[in-house]
Structure formats: structure tokens, C-alpha cells
């Protein structure tokens, strides 16, 4: 079975498929939908308690700081973080542009009383 899987080259085919923007967008959209569903289900107190006891506690026990520090050091050293910051800024701009009315409403609703008011219409 391993030989057959190796010959099919699942990981390289999957990587090539995900390398196409339309496919990556589709996977992202599907994962976002699944994540929303999971979050909705996880609002139950009993489920949250189990997750906290099982997952969070185990994650907190692991010493991930040194390995993550090494990875971060490499990312910062070769400047790879610039591309990530650019991507996050582009996506944030796209989201704000697509949700202009929502952003204005939130700013209007949450701004302190002493700040200037912006029209939401």
C-alpha cells in the first residue's frame, strides 16, 4: 500500500492542486465554513470544558517556545515575514473594502462620545 501511495505522489499532486489560486480559495472557503460550524457547536459549556481539559492543558504542558523561537528567527532573518505582512495587509484591505458599511457601523457604535462622528449612510 505504501508503495502504491508513493507512486501516486499524493503530496506533490495535492501541493500542485493547492498551488492554483482557485483551488486554494475553494479550500479556504470550505475550511472557514467548517470552522464556523465547529465554533457554533463548541459554544456548549460541557464541550468547552472538555476541550479545555484535554487540548488546552496538553498544549500548555508542551515546551513549544524554543522550537518556535528558532523558526521565527529563521523567518525574520531571511525577510520572509515581509511577504506575510503584505498578505495580511492586502487581505485586511480587501475585507474592509468589501465590508465598508459594517466597519463604519462598528466604528460609529464603539467610538467614545468625545470622538468625531462619521456618517454611516
Task: Describe the overall structure.
This protein has helices spanning 2-8, 10-18, 21-41, 45-61, 65-77, 80-98, 100-110. It is extended. Helix content is 80%, strand content 0%. The relative contact order is 0.03. The chain is mainly α. The longest helix has 21 residues, at 21-41. The chain folds into two domains: 1-62, no CATH class; 78-121, no CATH class. The mean pLDDT is 77. The protein is built from seven helices and no strands. The protein starts with a helix and ends in an 11-residue tail after the last helix.
What's the shape? extended
What would you call the structural class?
Answer: mainly alpha
Question: Would you identify the regions where 5 or more consecutive residues have pLDDT less than 50?
Answer: none
Tell me the strand percentage band. under 5%
> How many discrete domains?
2
Name the average pLDDT: 77
Termini, distance in Å?
A: 62 Å
| Helix content, binned percent | over 70%
Q: SSE order in H/E notation?
A: HHHHHHH
Q: How many H/I helices?
A: 7
Q: Count every beta strand, where a strand is a DSSP E run of 2 or more residues.
A: 0
Oligomer: single chain
Radius of gyration: 21 Å
Largest sheet at a glance? none
Feature tags:
121 residues; mainly alpha; 2 domains; 80% helix
Amino acid at each position: 500500500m505504501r508503495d502504491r501511495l508513493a507512486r501516486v505522489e499524493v503530496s506533490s499532486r495535492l501541493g500542485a492542486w493547492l498551488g492554483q489560486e482557485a483551488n486554494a480559495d475553494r479550500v479556504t472557503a470550505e475550511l472557514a465554513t467548517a470552522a464556523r460550524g465547529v465554533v457554533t457547536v463548541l459554544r456548549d459549556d460541557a464541550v468547552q470544558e472538555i476541550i479545555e481539559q484535554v487540548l488546552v492543558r496538553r498544549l500548555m504542558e508542551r515546551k513549544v517556545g524554543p522550537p518556535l523561537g528558532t523558526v521565527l528567527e529563521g523567518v525574520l532573518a531571511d525577510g520572509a515575514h515581509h511577504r506575510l505582512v503584505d498578505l495580511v495587509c492586502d487581505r485586511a484591505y480587501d475585507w474592509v473594502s468589501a465590508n465598508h458599511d459594517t466597519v463604519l457601523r462598528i466604528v460609529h457604535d464603539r467610538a467614545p462620545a468625545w470622538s468625531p462622528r462619521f456618517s454611516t449612510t
